[in-house]
Amino acid sequence: MEQEKTFYTLIVFSENFAGLLNQVTAVFTRRQVNIESLNVSASSIKGVHKYTITCWSTEEQIQLITKQIEKRIDVLQAHYFTDDEIFIQEVALYKLSTPAVLENPAVSSAVRHHGAQIVEVNPTYTVVSKKGLTDDIMSLYYALNDYNCVLQYVRSGRIAITKSCTEYLDAFLEERRRIHEEQQKQK
Fold first, then answer.
1. Paired strand residues for 94
2. 3-state class of 44 per DSSP?
3. Could you give the CA distance from residue 120 to residue 145 in angstroms, rounded to a whole number?
4. Are 11 and 52 in contact (CB under 8 A)?
5. Residue 47 has pLDDT above 80, yes or no
6. Quick one: which of 132, 157, 154 has its CA closest to 50?
7. Which of 167, 178, 128 is nearest to 149 (CA)?
8. Quick one: which of 180, 5, 24 has its CA closest to 82?
């Protein structure tokens, strides 16, 4: 009997070295777990990057994946979370036909109703931006698509921060700094 899968967000902190992304994704490939979204960006700590990866997995699988990723030399830390343990956001851009937007006031109404923003208007196209949860972003997409005005659509990967008052990486780096200072004193 196959275990029930849960949607997990894995947050990985690493130093910024070429080839690490390939090593991280290879762990998922070996476990035959599909990555749903992947976002890599600089973190608030100089020289440290943050990978936010989402996937459907069993808890046993995500634990193994997390441990294997943490074993990589350039990885500082990796943790997995369920949606109730983190704050999440995505961003989407919708490129709409300006003539279709002008001809049908319901399009502008749908944009306002979904809390989106019009960020560019020219005679050919109108660009709308929406931030929020995946379901909210997709809801606007479906509403706009019903009006046959969507020329292009793109959605970012998930970005996330923990709800915990403790930043795991800060504690890790502080401990690492303390150990390094003790080693220097012993020399």
1. 128, 153
2. coil
3. 19
4. yes
5. yes
6. 157
7. 128
8. 5
Whole-number Å distance between alpha carbons of 21 and 81: 20
Phi, psi (deg, nearest 5) at residue 16: -90, 90
User: For residues 158 and 66, what is the distance between their CA atoms, to the nearest angstrom?
Assistant: 18
**Tokens describing residue 174:** 């502080």
- Nearest alpha carbon to residue 156 among 134, 179, 125: 134
Cα 176 to chain centroid distance, Å, stands at 27
Q: What is the pLDDT of residue 135?
A: 93
Write out pLDDT tens, residues 114-130. Answer: 999 999 999 999 999 99
80-108 confidence digits (pLDDT tens): 999 999 999 999 999 999 999 999 999 99
Helices (H), the chain: 20-30, 59-70, 98-103, 105-113, 134-146, 168-186
Which amino acid, residue 84? D
- Domains by residue range for the chain, with CATH: 6-81 (3.30.70.260), 88-157 (3.30.70.1150)
CA dihedral 82, 167, 15, 35 (to 10 degrees): 10
Global pTM reads 0.80
